[in-house]
Amino acid sequence: MSVKNDQNLIDEILTRSIDTIYPDRQAFENLLKSGKSLRIYMGIDPTATYAHLGHATNYIILKRLHELGHKIIVLIGDFTAMIGDPSDKSSARKRLTEEEVKENFKTFKDQIGKILDFSDLENPIELRFNSEWLNKLTLKEAVELASHFTVQRMLERDVFEKRIKEKKPLYVHEFFYPLMQGYDSVALEADVEIGGTDQTFNMLAGRILVKDYQHREKIVVTTTLLENPVTGEKLMSKSLGTGIGLNESPQEMFGKTMALPDEAIIQVFIDCTYLSMVEIKELEMSLKSGTNPRDIKNRLAFEIVKMYHSKEDAAQARENFDKLFKDKEIPDDMPEFHLGAKNILDVLMETKLAASKGEARRLVDGGGVKVDGKVVPDYEFMVQSIPAGVVVQKGKRGFVKVF
Q: Is 219 within the bounds of a domain?
């Protein structure tokens, strides 16, 4: 497939959701205009069963690069997930077992496929696993790999410096993470790697290794993280269990978007939707001129649900949300479960409204559970099975019908 030289698309790739380009923007622009088919990848460690909107920022950029005709590789870090990425961590990350990793990446392709076209036969997108090469590294090769970096260079990493200052444990195996991720670039013969700013150190390690092993340049593109511009807190985090998963239902996705802080609206439009920058600027001006942020956020929620489900699903989710919060009605469409008469804690667990009995108890204690609109008084409450079903509600957005 020939590479396109679409200046408008190239400009958008170089500017939208971009933080820093190494060695510089001009070098990347020159490559994009050279007519050469570039090997471009982004890696993701399957540390949870879902990808979220924070990851989608990078996949949207990959989608644009794919449209230009470049070779796109989605790398699943099944090996590196078993080490644990120390990025942005104040303590060592929990190391996952091989079984946990396999369980987590089961549906990744389906989720990412909502953005990237894995069915394109003319310019197929590769899905790779870094265990392909990292499992085969000998101890001799690992020592050779480590010889390209000094301990001083590793300790320059801010999270490591912070842990040493706070006298928290810093384990030797954590030094191997950037080495392994860096070696991915060598194994893939990558021209470009894309990732969030929290991955800068790891991606630059790959840039060093490509230069040392293959005597060529690798472009590193760091993208903006979805953060609250006021508090600086991440809006999406797998390790914290927060964010909007690409595998969530239209209703949950719509409701979670509406719950985002007002100050983050425009950034989420930029990073997570296909709306043009012209349209986004108009929405930003509308906000500044006094339009209710809720109305702009409603548009954002619609656009996001439309991307991952359909326009019809987005319209239904909007209608259900408006009924729930404007008219104080329950949604028309909700998951249904045939459980029979059961204790409320069991119902919350089996319908996945609660992840554990401990969480279920906390919900009941806090008055956050209702059955047919009435607050559940205690743990002994029994949910009765009737032909018409009863509505079990968790908080403001969690609804199921139980028969």
A: yes
